[in-house]
Design brief:
six-stranded mixed sheet, alpha+beta, Nuclear Transport Factor 2, Chain: A, globular
């Protein structure tokens, strides 16, 4: 469980600090970010690892430090489903993360975030 949480914390830190190198190590080669909406665009958006790293690298995604609150962790063998709430000054993410353990190393393979703009940001 400790190693799984370390992988999730590295994933969050990589996004918060726009650290593409850290994300490269933390994300599985088949990683996908699946989200409903992309800023003001509607629809389902699926970003593979390379596109996600590009969005983080060019600061479209990330750049704000977030707290992590673990809602649940369900592990079955080498696969884990983790629900977290990630909160920054501006946004709150309700994320479902799917992680896999291969060769003793946990990697994030799927991130399904539901993004909420905080009320204080909406009113400004």
């Amino acid at each position: 469980m400790k190693e799984l949480k370390q992988a999730i914390e590295a994933f969050v830190k990589g996004g918060d600090t726009n650290n593409v190198e850290l994300l490269e190590k933390t994300l599985h080669s088949q990683y996908q970010n699946i989200q409903d909406g992309f800023f003001k665009e509607e629809g389902i958006f699926i970003f593979p690892k390379a596109k996600y790293l590009e969005l983080v690298g060019n600061k479209t995604f990330g750049g704000s430090v977030r707290t992590i609150h673990y809602e649940s962790i369900e592990q079955s063998g080498s696969i884990a489903s983790v629900k977290v709430i990630l909160e920054s000054q501006y946004l709150k993410f309700y994320s479902t993360l799917i992680c896999v353990c291969q060769q003793g190393s946990w990697k994030v393979i799927v991130n399904i975030p539901v993004v909420e703009v905080k009320a204080s940001v909406k009113s400004s």
